[in-house]
Write a structure and sequence with these properties.
Mean pLDDT of chain B: 90
Order of helices and strands of chain A: HHH
Low-confidence stretches of chain B: 1-8
Mean pLDDT of chain A: 81
Largest sheet of chain B: 5 strands, antiparallel
Helix content of chain B: 40-55%
Shape of chain B: elongated
Oligomer: heterodimer
Largest interface: A-B, 31 and 39 residues
Largest sheet of chain A: none
Strand content of chain A: under 5%
Radius of gyration of chain B: 32 Å
Chain lengths: ~110, ~450
């Protein structure tokens, strides 16, 4: 189950990163990005593409892994119907059976 | 949908509304202080100027981030990334030492919810009055109070959204744009979006954010161990719980120290009963500690029935503050902070890009001279104006001419033409030339860049 979940995370992150990659570089020339962000390093266009994809993939992995984590640790099936929930704590007037708290501040 | 869930299975069941009772005391005072300091910084900082610019401004169009006396250029974004990592690591460190201190006192969700609660209390009164008001039929009083609360909430949310945009657009200019209805589309979007998010999260969702939406609430337990500070009810001392008169001896009635007043539940912003044990919903705001201590005082019992403690402490063992995970976090944090501070202090506030003129490899000049032409982009990243000296390093054959004389205002970018000349007899082919740029003023800021100087190849 866990291995399958991780495989889904890796695969969906890859698909998302690939889509984002094509859209991004359909609009932006990687050379422009090099000139702005990384011109102190002498990197070529291929490396710029590679780094950009790696960055996008990491972001997508983070999103997908966090989603899996939130679903795994979140409310289980039936939570909305009350399954697995603690009963709502009982609350009453503090002075009920505590006459010394029969004070306006506590009511 | 997974198997076994029928069509009526809903995503969400509305929990009963939590009406947290107002509380005073040491920890409530600390939280008020945190709210005032943190929100004070948030709302005031954009209005404070520093060195002639807004003290904190993330100027996206100009791609310059101002944080007090520091200006970060796009090339410096690594520092901002490192600062984010430091912030994350600090959170881990604090959580390992003191539990959910972040949740209880410093999380934006907590501080803004606190302010929204203050406004709610001013208008509708404390817990009981609010409950009665909500249960009562709509009448003039209810309409008036609910409207006043909404006006306050929406006004505060809009001010929050306005301030948020003010960190990215000079806030005074943005204020003028808002007043004259001339805000740009992105400014308008973020202004309204952040206002809406504040209103929704702090006004409506409140504890639901912590319970269902916050990833940190889910994984903070991974940083906990038996020596982490938690808020706990001393079950051995408190149970069996039950009502009694102050004059009665609980031992005679077979009771512990908990008088079952349920005030700890009533003050809880997430609506839990801390006496049921440590729960993921507990944001460690310590409101239950404050109110329980007051009740203990009233009953002349010892304080601390609910208290900050550790699991080891509760089981009678000794709490260790210094332990491997704390040391690892502390060392990492110290190394990162030192590294970032050192790097920021040793930044060279000058950038130079020397690009060869692509039209010609070289020019032959009268007097058997060879000339190469370059375009120089010089960036003064300092907050002072500078004149620059430009010279070729360790090469007496090459003479450098630059026009105009490089002189830049603070944070100015200048483009110049650089010509380098050498006698034809100086060599053949391509030669690496180092060019040093240095300020005329003290302390000297200098940077050396390399370029290729081309001579005839034959």
């Amino acid at each position: 189950m866990r291995q399958r979940d991780w495989a889904v995370v890796l695969w969906i992150a890859f698909l998302s990163a690939a889509t984002g990659f094509f859209v991004l570089f359909g609009l932006i020339d990687p050379l422009d990005m090099i000139n702005v962000w990384a011109d102190r390093f002498d990197i070529g266009v291929r490396l710029a593409y590679g780094l950009a994809f790696a960055f996008l993939y990491l972001l997508c992995l983070l999103a997908a892994a966090l989603t899996m984590f939130m679903i795994r640790t979140g409310p289980a099936s039936g939570h909305a119907e009350g399954k697995g929930r603690r009963p709502i704590p009982e609350v009453h007037d503090p002075s009920q059976s505590n006459p010394d708290l029969d004070d306006e501040d506590w009511k | 949908m997974s198997n076994g869930q029928d069509a009526s299975s809903s995503l969400y069941r509305k929990d009963p509304k939590v009406y947290p009772r107002d509380v005073s005391g040491t920890f409530a005072g600390l939280r008020k202080l945190a709210v005032v300091v943190l929100l004070g910084l948030y709302y005031i900082l954009p209005w404070v100027n520093w060195d002639g610019h807004q003290s904190v401004l993330f100027d996206l169009p100009a791609r310059k981030f101002y944080i007090f006396g520091l200006t970060f250029w796009p090339q410096d974004f690594i520092f901002l990334t490192l600062m984010l990592i430091i912030a994350g690591l600090s959170l881990f460190f604090v959580t390992a030492v003191a539990g959910r201190l972040w949740c209880g006192y410093a999380c934006p969700q907590t501080v803004w919810t606190e302010v929204f609660l203050w406004m709610e209390r001013w208008v509708e009164g404390d817990r009981n009055k609010r409950m009665k008001l909500d249960a009562s039929p709509w009448n003039a009083n209810k309409i008036l109070r609910k409207t006043a609360k909404q006006v306050l909430w929406i006004g505060f949310a809009l001010w929050t959204g306005f301030t948020f945009v003010g960190f990215f657009t000079p806030i005074r200019e943005f204020g003028h744009s808002v007043l004259t209805f001339q805000t740009g589309p992105w400014e308008t979007f973020w202004f309204l979006f952040y206002s809406f998010a504040t209103y929704g999260n702090a006004g409506i969702l409140r504890e639901q954010v912590c319970k269902y939406m916050c990833p940190y609430a889910r994984f903070q337990s991974a940083m906990f161990d038996k020596d982490t500070l938690v808020i706990a009810y001393d079950e051995a001392r408190g149970e069996p719980r039950g009502g009694r008169k102050k004059s009665e001896n609980p031992a005679d009635k077979g009771l512990g120290d908990c008088i079952n007043c349920t005030l700890c539940v009533q003050v809880c912003p997430t609506g839990i009963d801390i006496r049921e044990g440590l729960q993921i919903e507990c944001i460690a705001c310590a409101a239950c500690i404050d109110v329980c201590d007051q009740v203990m005082d009233k009953m002349d019992y010892k304080r601390g029935l609910i208290k900050y403690t550790t699991e080891h402490n509760l089981s009678g063992e000794k709490t260790r503050v210094v332990r491997p995970r704390i040391l690892v976090y502390a060392i990492l944090l110290l190394a990162l902070i030192s590294g970032v501070v050192w790097s920021i202090n040793h930044r060279v506030l000058l950038r130079a890009e020397l690009l060869r003129d692509r039209n010609a490899l070289y020019r032959e000049l009268p007097g058997d001279l060879i000339e190469n032409v370059y375009t120089l982009k010089l960036i003064n990243m300092d907050s002072r104006p500078h004149k620059y000296k430009v010279e070729v390093v360790d090469n007496n054959d090459i003479t450098l001419f630059i026009s105009p004389e490089p002189e830049l205002q603070p944070e100015q970018v200048g483009n110049f033409i650089v010509r380098m000349q050498a006698p034809e007899s100086a060599g053949r082919g391509s030669t690496k030339v180092d060019v040093r740029f240095s300020t005329m003023e003290e302390p000297v800021i200098e940077r050396t860049v390399s370029a290729r100087f081309l001579m005839p190849f034959d």
